[in-house]
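look at this one:
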Amino acid sequence: MQRTLQQIAEFVKGELSGDPERVILGIAPIEQATIEDISFADRGRNLKKVPQSKAAAVLVPSDADVSGPNLIRVANPRLAFARVAALFYSPSLPDKGCHSSVCTGRDCKLGQDIAIAPGVVMGNNVTIGDRVALYPNVVVGDDVIIGDDTVIYPNAAILERCRIGRRVIIHSGSVIGSDGFGFVPDENGHFQKIPQTGIVQIDDDVEIGANNTIDRATFGRTWIQAGVKTDNLVHIAHNVTIGKDSAIAGQVGFAGSSTIGSHVAIAGQAGVGGHLTVADGVTIGPQAAVAQSIVSPQTVSGTTLAMPHRTWLRLQRILPDLPRMQKDLRALQQALARLEDKIE
C-alpha cells in the first residue's frame, strides 16, 4: 500500500507544504519514523522534534510555528493520523465464504461476501448481513440479527435474540446476552432466579473490547447506542442504557437499570450504581463510585477506603462541604490567634 503526499493531503483536507509526489509507504511515531513514513505532532514536545525527524512527512496543527521538508497542516493532527493509519492498515479477515466446519441451524439467512471461519456455530433463524466476518469459534444464538460489515473476533458469544448493528466490532471473549443477575430470596432464604427474558441491542459503529459481559434485560433491552466504545473487561448489567458516542475504559462496571447519557467518558475501574442516571457530557474519573445520579455535565472523581457502611454514608454527605469547612476552620484559627494576642 502506498500513497502520495498529495493524495494524503486531499484525504485529510489538509494544506500541504512540500513535495506532492513524495510516496508514503507507512506510518510511525515521530521518534521512529523513517524516510518512507508519515507521522504526526500535535503538542509542544513533539513539535520540537519535527525538524530532526527522519519522517518523510509530518501532520502538524494548522497554526503550528514549525518547519520541515514535508508538512501537512490540519486542524487535528491526531485525528488526521488515525484516518491516515486506516489507509495503510487493514486487519486480516477470515477467508471469504463459509468454512465447511461451520455448524448452521435451520432457516439462517447469510448475506453476500461473508467470511465465516472454522468452528463457528450458528443457531436457528440467524440473520447475517453482507460482508460480516466471524472469526473461529464464535457462537451465535437463535434468532440473532447481525448487521452489515460487522466483525466478531474469536471465542465471542452472541446469545439468543440479541441485535447487533452495522460496522460493529466485538473483540475476543466477549459475551453479549448473558443472563442478568436477577434473584429473589424465597421464604426459606434460598434464591429464586428471575427469568431474564429481554435482549441486548447494540447499535451501529460500536466497538466492544475483549472479555466484556453485557447482560440481557430482565424485560425489554439492554441498549448500547451508536458509536459507543468500550475497553476490555467492562461489565454492563441488565437493562442498562449507554448513550451515543460514550467511551468506557477497562474494568468499569454498571449496575442494573442505570442510564448513561451521550458523550460520557468513564475512566478505569469506576462503577455506576443501579437505577442511576448520568447526564450527557459527564466525565467520571478512575475508581470513582457513582452512588447518586449526575444531572448536569461535569467531571466527577474520588475514591475512598473501605469502612463501615453507615460511616461511609455520613462521609458522603460531608465530603462536598470539606472545602468550605476548611475555609471556616482557618478563619476560626485566625480569630482565635488574634484573641490570644489581645489576652497576652
The chain has a mean pLDDT of 95.
